[in-house]
């Protein structure tokens, strides 16, 4: 992943447009750098682990009430809940459409959620953006994800592996799951290097084998021991999303990693994952003329919008899924923005939320001319698309 560098200098601006003008872009917003193979969310307290349940997800997709089956899908994250309330976990319901080529578009939660449910819903939306269906445009589609509770102590190895590798939380629950996967004689202490200083570190080649399709994810969980000389032994794949070539490559990387000598260790466990190529945003359609819109050039000279990478929806950025939003707004003569409205966003409404936040943060100098119905396209580009060491953000003044 290339680290982005945002270059914003004096006088760089992004202009609103009249409704009749050809669309122009706010400068692309790169997703901030990701730490590869790093957990990203804390889950649970140590005292609660024994009372927690894993929530196994089951997904069903329909269009116009008829079941449809994905030609490609990847694993959804296993969630957690207190056992007392696990049976009351509501379904996650996501609306979407299918384009002629089978790509999912117009992804939007049917019922907005808060807290942990919102995080789970965002992950489901991003996963759905990478799914592919048979060719043929369809509308009025729903993805319903139901959750079946299972106590952690009774969870199958498949549930444990999906939680460990796909959900990728931090905290006591993950530690408890890791201990189960490590085995009864494990003494690696939750550290894949057994507490040893690394001498030689090898990483998997993510281009080995069949990469996931654009926006997709693959995973594998490996367990091994460390001998007195610091070398990995008894290396085995506990489970994976099915890419055997990548499974073998991760075992090779573990075998080639050498740590400092010391007492032997057993049950070192680690999850590797990789994502597919960048999934470009769908084409942005031309907007029809709006007779009441009036956004003159004078307003362009007063408006400055700073691209903000933090508005990139994280779940989509983690998968290198790009998107855009068309945002409309008014500008008062004294410099206040108002009536900020989302006209369209693809492939998911989450990009629209980021686009509106970006526009609301704009600075407007006072002037003599108001702007009505100004439109700004906000585009989100993944830094992984760049071949340079940095992702450059520039503004158009056309």
TrEMBL record:
**A matching Pfam family:** TonB_2
Q: Which residues form the signal peptide?
A: 1-21
Keywords noted in UniProt = Membrane, Signal, Transmembrane, Transmembrane helix
**What membrane topology term does the record carry?**
Single-pass membrane protein
Asked if the record carries the keyword Metal-binding, the reply is no
Q: Which residues form the TonB C-terminal domain?
A: 297-389
Compartments where located: Membrane
Region (Disordered) residue spans: 189-214
InterPro entries, alphabetized: TonB/TolA_C (IPR006260), TonB_C (IPR037682)
Q: What is this protein called?
A: TonB family protein
Q: Which organism is it from?
A: Brevundimonas nasdae
């Amino acid at each position: 992943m290339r680290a982005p560098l945002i270059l914003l200098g004096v006088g760089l601006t992004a202009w609103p447009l009249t409704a009749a003008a050809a669309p122009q872009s706010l400068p692309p917003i790169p997703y901030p750098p990701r730490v590869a193979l790093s957990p990203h969310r804390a889950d649970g307290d140590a005292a609660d682990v024994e009372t927690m349940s894993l929530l196994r997800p089951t997904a069903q997709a329909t269009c116009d009430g008829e079941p449809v089956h994905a030609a490609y899908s990847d694993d959804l994250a296993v969630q957690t809940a207190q056992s007392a309330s696990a049976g009351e976990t509501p379904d996650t319901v996501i609306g979407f459409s299918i384009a002629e080529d089978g790509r999912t578009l117009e992804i939007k939660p049917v019922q907005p959620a808060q807290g942990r449910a919102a995080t789970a819903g965002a992950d489901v939306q991003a996963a759905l953006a990478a799914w592919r269906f048979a060719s043929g445009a369809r509308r009025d589609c729903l993805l319903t994800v139901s959750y079946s509770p299972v106590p952690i102590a009774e969870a199958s190895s498949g549930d444990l592996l999906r939680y460990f590798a796909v959900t990728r939380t931090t905290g006591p629950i993950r530690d408890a799951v890791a201990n189960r996967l490590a085995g009864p004689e494990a003494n690696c202490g939750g550290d894949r290097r057994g507490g040893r200083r690394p001498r030689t570190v090898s990483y998997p080649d993510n281009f080995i084998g069949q990469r996931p399709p654009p926006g997709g994810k693959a995973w594998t969980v490996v367990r091994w021991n460390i001998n007195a000389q610091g070398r990995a032994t008894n290396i085995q794949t506990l489970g994976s999303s099915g890419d055997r070539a990548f499974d073998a490559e991760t075992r090779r990387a573990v075998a080639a990693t050498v740590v400092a000598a010391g007492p032997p260790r057993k049950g070192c466990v680690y999850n590797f994952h990789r994502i597919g190529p960048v999934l470009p945003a769908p084409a942005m359609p031309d907007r029809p003329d709006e007779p009441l819109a009036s956004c003159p050039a004078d307003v362009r000279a007063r408006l400055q919008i700073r691209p903000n990478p933090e508005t990139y929806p994280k779940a989509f950025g983690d998968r290198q899924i790009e998107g855009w939003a068309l945002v409309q707004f008014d500008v008062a003569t004294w410099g206040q923005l108002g009536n900020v409205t989302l006209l369209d966003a693809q492939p998911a409404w989450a990009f629209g939320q980021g686009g509106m936040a970006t526009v609301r943060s704009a600075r407007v100098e006072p002037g003599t001319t108001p702007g009505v119905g100004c439109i700004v396209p906000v585009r989100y580009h993944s830094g992984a698309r760049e071949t340079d060491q940095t992702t450059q953000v520039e503004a158009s003044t056309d």
